[in-house]
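#struct-help
A.M.: can someone run this one for me? Single chain, 173 residues.
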Amino acid sequence: MNLATDDFTLFGLPQRFALDRAAVDERWRALQATMHPDNVASASAAEQQAATQWAVRINEARERLKSPVQRAALLCELRGVSMDARASRNAVPMAFLVRQMSWRETLDEARGAEAVERLDAEVAAHERETLENLRVLLDERNDTAAAAQLTWVLTYIARLRDAINERLDALDA
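D.P.: on it. Structure tokens below:
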């Protein structure tokens, strides 16, 4: 194996957006079982260091493959579309930015858990729609440019969902 191998190849999975999370976890366990540093505890320092590097690499790959945002970005990069942060400036449609700003204002103005939960349901529905559209663009249409745009949209949605969850936690406290 090669440390520079892409995450899909490392895990023996197809380069697809739609992945079975159980398959990712199963492959991670198999890789960890063979490459874990404990397996080389009595080996040389170089072998121990290599095993540690592999363990880190395998863990990082698992996190990328399990995260829809990171997985979509990885697929875009592998297919030749840069996901550099500078590219995001023009990638996110203005209509979505306006909607996202409205959601943020709604979150800021929400006075109780019920209002925040309504917003969360609306944003979650948009997130599900975006995920399905990404699956179609990446796995069926091979439209990486459009998928990259939706990947940036998904990053905004993910940050908003995090803010909503933080707000709900604060309201529960």
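A.M.: thanks! DSSP finds eight helices and no strands in the chain.
D.P.: also worth noting: The longest helix spans residues 144-172.
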